[in-house]
Each structure stands twice: as structure tokens, then as C-alpha cells.
Amino acid sequence: MGVDWGIEDFIQDERYSNFMTIRISGQFDLDRAKDILGNFDFVGIVERYEESLLLMKSRIGGLNKINFEKMNVRSNRKKAARARGFDEHTLNRIREVNTLDTQLYDFAAAVLFERYKCRYQGNLTEALAEFQSNNLNFKFGWYKQLFWKMYSFLYTNNIQRIASLS
Questions:
Q1: What share of the chain is helix, strand, coil (3-state, %, to 5)?
Q2: Within 10 Å of residue 51's Cβ, how many Cβ atoms?
Q3: Integer Cα distance of 64 and 62 in angstroms
Q4: CB 55 within 8 Å of CB 44
Q5: Dihedral sign, Cα of residue 109, residue 112, residue 115, residue 116
Q6: Which residue, 71, 87, 107, 123, shows the most beta carbons closer than 10 Å to its own?
């Protein structure tokens, strides 16, 4: 089961080039994607996940307690990419076919995320340190772990089944 593709097949398939820009704007239109993204209630940055959670909680409200369990964490994205066997040439090719998505990400990180930080009421640095300390050894209970394992299993199997029908 699965897709019989290599990374070069993925890079060459135009359906996946600048995927997020197209997904958000409906076309290869970076300015439209930025405008639409700017109207979202919140846009988080995965490399700043913990900070994103705090800013989202502040921005959206209604969230009493937020915790997460760290799983499959890599400290360095380049190391992670190399661990998957991507050499510098391959990484450059991925960047080439995703220039709009890269610019969209940069916009979200430099403009939107910074805007959320400026609107945060309180000391974000202290709140982040406290949140990290409180979440350091957090683990979901066995029932939630079982639920997510079942959900993941069912979701993954359905996605694979749908993909095999295409």
C-alpha cells in the first residue's frame, strides 16, 4: 500500500508546487493569498509552536488550559531533511518549485505572527517560560492516547484507500 513515488516525482508534479498559495488563493496569486491569510483569526508558526499556542489562546479566547505532548521532535529542520536522505541539490529543487509558498510563509512569520505578538497583553516571554515549565512532562492519559491512535489509524487507512482509488 502507499504511493510508488520518489522525491523527484513529487518535485516535478505541478499539483504540489506552491501548494499552500494555490490552496489559499485558488491560483498562483501570492498577493491574494497574503490578503486572505491576513483575514484569518490566527496563523501559527510550527517552528514556534509553543508561542503559537499562547498567542492563539490570547487571540481567540475561550481556551482555559492548553497542553500538548511532544512526540517525534527534531531539533533542526536541515538535519531532519538530511536524515530523510535529501541532499542540498534536492532541497534547492524543492525551494525552486515552492517560491510562492516560501514567500507566503515569510509573510506569515514576519508580519502576521509579529502582529499577534504586539497585541499580546502581558509579558509573552514570561508566559512562554511558565507554559513550557508547566508542559515539560505533560502526557495525555491512556484513554486519550488510545483515542488518537484509533483516529490516526482510521484516518490514515482511509486516506491510503482514497489515494489508491485515484
A1: 70, 0, 30
A2: 21
A3: 6
A4: yes
A5: negative
A6: 107
pLDDT digits 0-9 by tens, 79-118 = 555 556 788 999 999 999 999 999 999 999 999 999 999 9
User: What DSSP element (H or E) covers 156?
Assistant: helix 142-165
Single-letter residue type at 68:
F
Instruction: Look at phi and psi of residue 122 and say left if phi exceeds 0, alpha if psi is from -120 to 50, else beta.
Output: left
Q: Cell numbers 516560501 label which residue?
A: 102
Amino acid at 125: T
Q: Which residues contact 84 (CB under 8 A, 6 or more apart)?
A: none
Give the pLDDT score at 74: 60
pLDDT per position as a tens digit, 17-56:
999 999 999 999 999 999 999 999 899 999 999 999 999 9
| Total residues belonging to the chain | 166
How far apart (Å, rounded) are the C-alpha atoms in residues 127 and 148? 28
Quote the pTM value: 0.72
CA gap 145, 148 in Å, rounded = 5
Nearest Cα to 154, choosing from 144, 166, 142, 146?
146
